[in-house]
Design goal:
heterodimer; A: alpha+beta; Butyryl-Coa Dehydrogenase, subunit A, domain 1; Butyryl-CoA Dehydrogenase, subunit A, domain 2; Butyryl-CoA Dehydrogenase, subunit A, domain 3; 3 domains; 4-stranded mixed sheet; 4-stranded antiparallel sheet; 11 helices; globular; B: alpha/beta; Rossmann fold; two-stranded antiparallel sheet; 24% strand; binds flavin-adenine dinucleotide
């Protein structure tokens, strides 16, 4: 048992922290209030290698381990949830799926552009009529001599309208349910493939969330990702990794809210003393700090096990479930500690509060995580 | 051109410094250590010199305990080619002259054309080491530089420092020592590839015997550190602006004796 980070992991964390504090925190409120996609930040993320963090150098990546990646996403989320989600969806979902299931030719074709940040990635399974019950999707891919024709609509897709490369899941054999779903890689500009509407969201206003419309999109066999009908099995593996990054995002948002609260509790005076001198505030801060630490440890442990090549379905679900619920609790209390100001946009805590809610929904709701965990415990599958 | 950068590892700027159980040192538990920000300007400038000239070597040098390797590693991650770590117990709590003697010995071994360092380290704020090193080597030194340009033939450098409302420009022969002021450049963040590559770069460790420097006790002896008394809370002077200003002036004159 060794809880120490390596020198390299500490350096990654320090660099991500300095970047987040120096480049993201000062502009995060501006982008979020304008509902603007932060291209200037994303370009810098690409230059620093954050958009290819976990992929081997032969595909243009930095070759970080999952533990470093978790530290990186956490540090970014401390400053801004939107950018953390952009990074997480790009790396863990889109690039992650191509790396997991792609042929050597597919990896070479797509990963270097994604890793260098020349192209952002999106990943679509959710549809207007199906989310938790993902295999009930309606998008179809009909095979013919030349390849496949795709039709359907994907909903709530992170980076949907800004991505150059997208992985989408479609039904290739309706009779086989989840075992009849396949994954495809599409590029922006393919005839019939376009982003649909974006959403007016509660939070994450600087993250792009859009529909993807597939209207008779012709794809070649080279764009089939993984085995025919094997897309859903791969999806579950991709989500095992993705959930760790959502857990890290929740930990970061919670830590950011706690940091702001500690500063505020030192500075705000009531009844002749800093509010941090009241036991009521102290109790809250102590509890929040402790729960964040527990969430962080679960998240790092899931990442560590992934680095060991172990199955992490249970661990990543536990980390995501716990961290996202801790995130909600911490940000709620952070607003409380800020009193009336916490309810305003003068302080970052209301933004973190709105942003972290997504962590209880995206990549499987908390109810679905409980289902996954229970099934593992009860050995139901 | 070989450029050597002297860096010091210091507590993070956000650290709430406390006097330790030994009153001659600060409590170091829980401190995050960083490369002193002025030294980062120096590292950045060295990297730019190498990039501009298309060739050369940047060597980061630091003295201190084992943890100092981490500061050197982050210089390597930024792009320095290799590093030298002087691991000498005599450097613990050493005065600036001792530190400068040790660093000057490293410089003599390495024989660079240029030495860069920060105008001061942000922990002790002595600002003496750069000048002392230059003095020991008999090299010219220009402190607090805001810009520099090395002549194409590598024989001289023109460097500027800000003085009250103006820029003072100097020509210096190389080798020389330059100390960096804020504004010299904007240090880069290490890239993730830089971080991953840094572990393959060399950090040469030098012990007490390797430099032939006689360290015969500090000439500046630190007696003790004293915590500042807590700053009294601010005071708000209420009332109409006209009366409030009159009261403020009175307080500044009679109580604070500031005017
Ligand atoms: C900002 C944002 C970004 C997103 N990014 C992406 C993306 O990049 N790619 C992508 O594919 N999707 C993305 N999504 C979609 C997200 O994954 C889904 O919203 C999520 O999986 C839930 O699906 P749903 O919205 O259809 O809710 P539903 O599945 O309709 O769920 C509604 C409620 O019913 C509950 N429920 C459903 N089934 C059960 C059950 N069996 N037992 C108990 N309770 C149940 C749910 O927990 C939830 O509380 C994103 C969503 C948002 C909001
Ligand atoms: C939308 C909105 C509408 C409002 N409308 C009105 C209005 O119409 N009229 C009006 O007068 N005000 C109004 N308010 C102000 C509101 O009543 C105050 O925000 C509230 O009383 C808290 O005061 P505060 O914001 O100064 O927080 P603070 O008093 O600074 O409190 C900060 C934190 O310290 C805690 N704290 C303070 N003292 C102690 C203690 N002794 N022990 C333990 N914990 C302590 C608080 O519980 C809180 O968590 C409004 C506020 C908002 C956000």
């Amino acid at each position: 048992m060794d809880f120490a980070l390596t020198e390299e992991q500490r350096l990654v964390r320090q660099t991500a922290r300095e970047f987040a504090e120096g480049e993201i925190a000062p502009v995060a409120a501006r982008f979020n209030e304008a509902g603007e996609f932060p291209w200037e930040i994303v370009r810098k993320l690409g230059e620093l290698g954050f958009l290819g963090a976990i992929f081997p150098p032969e595909y243009g990546g930095a070759g970080l381990d999952s533990v470093s990646y978790v530290l990186l996403v956490e540090e970014i989320a401390r400053a801004d949830g939107s950018i953390a989600l952009t990074v997480a969806a790009h790396n863990s979902l889109c690039s992650g799926h191509i790396y997991l299931a792609g042929t050597e030719a597919q990896r070479q074709k797509y990963l270097p552009r994604l890793a260098r940040g020349e192209a952002l990635g999106a990943w679509g399974i959710t549809e207007p009529g199906s989310g938790s019950d993902a295999s009930a999707m309606k998008t179809t891919a009909v095979e013919d001599d030349a390849g496949f024709i795709l039709n359907g609509t994907k909903a709530f897709i992170t980076n949907g309208s800004v991505a150059e490369i997208a992985v989408v899941m479609a039904v290739t054999d309706p009779a086989r349910a989840a075992k009849g779903i396949s994954a495809f890689v599409l590029e922006r500009g393919a005839p019939g493939f376009r982003p649909g509407g974006t959403y007016q969201k509660l939070g994450l206003h600087a993250s792009d969330t859009a529909e993807l419309i597939l209207d008779n999109v012709r794809v070649s066999r080279e764009q089939l990702l993984g085995q025919l009908h094997g897309g859903f099995v791969d999806t579950l593996k991709v989500l095992d990794g993705g959930r760790i990054s959502i857990a890290a995002m929740a930990v970061g948002l919670a830590q950011g809210a706690l940091d702001a609260s500690v500063t505020y509790a030192r500075e705000r005076h009531a009844f002749g003393q800093p509010i941090g001198h009241f036991q009521g505030i102290q109790g809250m801060l102590a509890e929040l700090a402790t729960e964040i630490e527990a969430a962080r440890l679960l998240t790092l442990r899931a990442a560590y096990l992934k680095d060991q090549g172990r199955g992490i379905r249970l661990e990543s679900s536990m980390a995501k479930l716990f961290a996202s619920e801790v995130g909600m609790k911490v940000t709620t209390k952070a607003i409380q500690i800020h009193g009336g100001y916490g309810y305003t946009r003068e302080f970052p805590v209301e933004r973190h509060f709105r942003d972290v809610k997504l962590c209880e929904i995206g990549e499987g709701t908390s109810e679905i995580q409980r289902l996954i965990i229970a099934r593992q415990i009860l050995q139901l599958t | 051109m070989k450029v050597l950068v002297l860096v010091k590892q210091v507590p993070d700027t956000a650290t709430q410094v406390k006097v330790g159980s030994d009153p001659r040192a600060i409590a170091t538990t829980g401190i995050t250590w960083i490369v002193s920000p002025y030294d980062e300007f120096a590292v950045e400038e060295a990297l730019r010199i190498r990039e501009k000239r298309g060739t050369g070597e940047v060597v980061a040098v630091s003295g201190g305990p084992e943890r100092v390797k981490e500061a050197l590693r982050s210089c390597l991650a930024m792009g320095a080619d290799r590093a030298v770590h002087v691991l000498d117990p005599a450097l613990e709590g050493a005065d600036t002259l001792t530190t400068a003697r040790v660093l000057a010995a490293v410089i003599q071994q390495e024989a660079p054309q240029l030495v860069l360092t920060g105008r001061q380290a942000i922990d002790d704020d002595t600002g003496a080491v750069g000048a002392q090193v230059a003095e020991l080597l008999g090299w010219p030194c220009l402190s607090w530089i805001m810009e520099e340009a090395i002549a194409e033939d590598g024989a001289t450098v023109r460097a500027g420092r800000q003085v009250e409302g103006a820029l003072e420009l100097f020509d210096l022969p190389l080798p020389c020592v330059l100390t960096a002021q804020k504004g010299l450049n904007e240090p880069r963040y290490p890239t993730l590839k830089g971080i991953m590559g840094a572990k393959k770069k060399e950090i040469k460790e030098l012990g007490p015997g390797d430099l032939g420097v006689n360290v015969d006790g500090p000439q500046l002896e630190l007696v003790r550190l004293e915590a500042l008394p807590p700053r009294p809370p601010g005071r708000i002077i209420p009332g109409e602006p006209k009366e409030a200003v009159r009261e403020l002036v009175r307080v500044l004159r009679e109580e604070a004796k500031a005017i």
